[in-house]
Amino acid sequence: MTDETTPSRESLAQILGGRRGAIDASIPPVAFVVGWLATGQSISWGAIVAIGVAVVLGTYRLIRGDKARAVVVSLAAVVIAALIALHTGRAEDFFLLQLLSNAASALLFAASIVVRWPLLGVIVGLLIGQKTRWRRDPALLRAYSWASWVWVLQYLIRVVVYGLLWWGGQVVALGIARTALSWPLVAATVAVSGWVLYKALPAGHPGLRLASEPGPENGPRT
């Protein structure tokens, strides 16, 4: 039951956002594949096209007010991926960095749950200004732990798909998968993890805010 005195719960999707960044990140890999195909499977030209597109996107993101650090990191990832492919002489290795980063992310999220510092809680806590105070609320800590497993699954899906395609040298399929498993998968992960998080919370809990945190109306809790 809800009434006018029940605080509205914030949407996890509203807090995390990230659609533009996920979409932008999938464009340079597609540009690499297009450049690679258009030039007779030339890794050098594929790399040049991918980096060029990344520079254009980065410039556009800076103009629209995105943080310079995020733009530099995105551009650096494309450059590193291109250098790996150029060094090995294998076009599929352009996607090796993504494969490894998703494997590392899966391990980090899983480890954070085991040590009771679920990364989803850490990220959301920083975004909404809670820092680490959410850990004082046992219900919220438990809910973040359950919801973080959804993020582990997201990264494992990418590892399996990218890994199989990379192993088979399927460059075009890797470009398609890189797009399909960017924002659509992120959106699904945010939606499902938000549902899991709120299902794990007891009735009447304020959601992403701490149930045990003092409020202006009810004073300190014990």
Helix and strand topology:
Blueprint: H1 12-16, H2 19-38, H3 43-63, H4 68-88, H5 96-114, H6 119-127, H7 138-167, H8 171-180, H9 183-200
Describe the structure in your own words:
This protein has 222 residues and is mostly helical. The chain has one domain (12-200). 69% of the residues lie in helices and 0% in strands. The protein has nine helices and no strands.
Number of helices: 9
End-to-end Cα distance, whole Å, is 25 Å
Strand content: under 5%
| Unreliable sequence segments | 1-7, 214-222
The major β-sheet equals:
none
Structural class by secondary-structure content = mainly alpha
- Number-wise, the strands total 0
Q: What string gives the helices and strands in order?
A: HHHHHHHHH
Rg value: 21 Å
Query: Quick check: average pLDDT?
Result: 86
Helical content (DSSP H or I, runs of 4+) = 55-70%
Shape: elongated
**Tally of distinct domains:** 1
Keywords: Membrane, Transmembrane, Transmembrane helix
Transmembrane segments: 45-63, 70-87, 107-128, 149-169, 181-201
Organism: Amycolatopsis carbonis
InterPro entries: UCP010219
